[in-house]
Amino acid sequence: MKEKIKEIAQITTGIALDTILPPRCVVTGEMVDRQGMIAPSAWSELDFINNPICEKCGVPFGFEVSAVESEGGSHCLQCLDYPPIYESARAAMKYNDQSRNMILGFKHADQTHNALAFVPWLKRAGADMLIGADAIIPVPLHRWRLLKRRYNQSSIMAHYLGRATNLPVIHEGLTRTRATQTQGHLNFEQRRKNVKSAFAVNEKHGQMIKGKTLILIDDVYTTGSTVKECAKALKKAGAKAVHVLTLARVVRYED
Questions:
Q1: Which of 86, 159, 88 is closest to 118 using CA atoms?
Q2: Quick one: pLDDT band at residue 251, thresholds 50, 70, 90?
Q3: How many domains does the chain have?
């Protein structure tokens, strides 16, 4: 996996990429000055998440979600009733039609160079958690899905974020112990059952995880079922703290 990530990185960086592909906006496809830039017309379509947010899960407060003041700050009712196992979660933007198309292109259409544009957004969203982090770890794909897709989008994001923050990336720190259904059509409870106990720490990297503060990277936070199971596996292996950082998140009460 590390070799594949490096190969993708080599062909999606700077001049090499501009030679292969003309620089285009990752949202609209319009020509831009350099890779990673966003066309001015696209900014209004991307809904970046700003305060106020839940201190725990990072969901933005507003019409859909109400804030409840507690000793630890402002939290959503979901986190007060069922505190997640991770320390905090943050996302760069809301998952809407525009970000969905951008992410699906990155995830399924070989648009791996889009990760260059994502890094500043991830750094902004995860600024507080990145300061005290020891390493970055991506949510893994099952080996059969990885063979079909040929790359793990979370590992690509982790690679570029690690390079931008000088944090080590443990690409194969987590493994999927079994194949799971695609979650797109599943509801909250079905998602939870689908990924229950589906992740484990790779024994080869146990010492890199034990006692460490980790940033768990994924593309979209929907119900949180996947990242919660990953965090559970990391905590079981001795991780000191796990923070979740995603490019986008679905915003609705049951998240």
A1: 159
A2: confident
A3: 1
